[in-house]
Amino acid sequence: MSSELKRAIEEAYRVVIFTGAGISTESGIPDFRSPGGLWTKMAPIDFSDFIRSEELRREAWRRKFEIDKTIVAAEPNKGHMAIAKLIDSGKASHVITQNIDNLHQNSGVPAERIIELHGNGTYAKCLDCGARHELHEVKAIYDASPAAPVCKSCGGIVKSATISFGQAMPEEEMRRAEEATLGCDLFLAIGSSLQVYPAAGFPILARRNGAMLAILNREPTPLDEIADLVIHDEIGPTLAPVAMLN
Fold first, then answer.
1. In what order do the strands lie in the sheet with 158-162?
2. In 2-157, which residue ranges form alpha helices assigned H by DSSP?
3. 55 partner at 20 to 30 Å CA-CA among 1, 88, 130, 141?
4. Given its phi and psi angles, is residue 179 left (phi above 0), alpha (psi -120 to 50 degrees) or beta?
5. CB atoms within 10 A of CB 51
6. Which residue in 118, 133, 136, 232 is the catalytic one?
7. Is 133 a catalytic residue?
């Protein structure tokens, strides 16, 4: 099946790559939605509740710092490196990702080629003035006070720069993702369950626009039936020979 995917990429004019949590599990980052994942043990905190309750903001930051113990140690795997090579070669134009772990950037993909639909968990932002806060600064505030961290510039609410349940999707990223999707002739979805909308709407949009749809995921997805090529296998070992990684 790798040979079929390699041929499809070689014959494509412009590839857009869409990634979900499955690509990062091979780097040791758990998929929160899978059986036994964090969200099956602990209900996510809704954005409206985060805004409303200082106690829940403290709890959100407690969870964040606990989860980060795993994420900060993670490194890009063969799947990430293969994608970086496809971007570097000019064959793929963009990576649209549901992931918040920064591993695409760490693998060498230029930031301007990455569209983060769910934000980025490696820093924080003030919800009022938009100021960026590094996580070590937020952690120092968290450790020093029983109150939830606030913005050092305006005193506003500080939150991880990710999109929470109940929070509006980022308009600019959604616009860029739609533009990239409509401009490709091969849409390659990797490591996503393709069940979380509106993000999962992009492969459907690509297919309706006439692009070839290829899906690489360990488990079946709801969109397998409309895809031109479906591979149920490990991501890194499948992509490495496609990108001719040593």
1. 132-134, 119-126, 158-162
2. 2-11, 22-25, 38-41, 47-52, 54-71, 78-88, 103-106, 135-144
3. 130
4. alpha
5. 16
6. 118
7. no
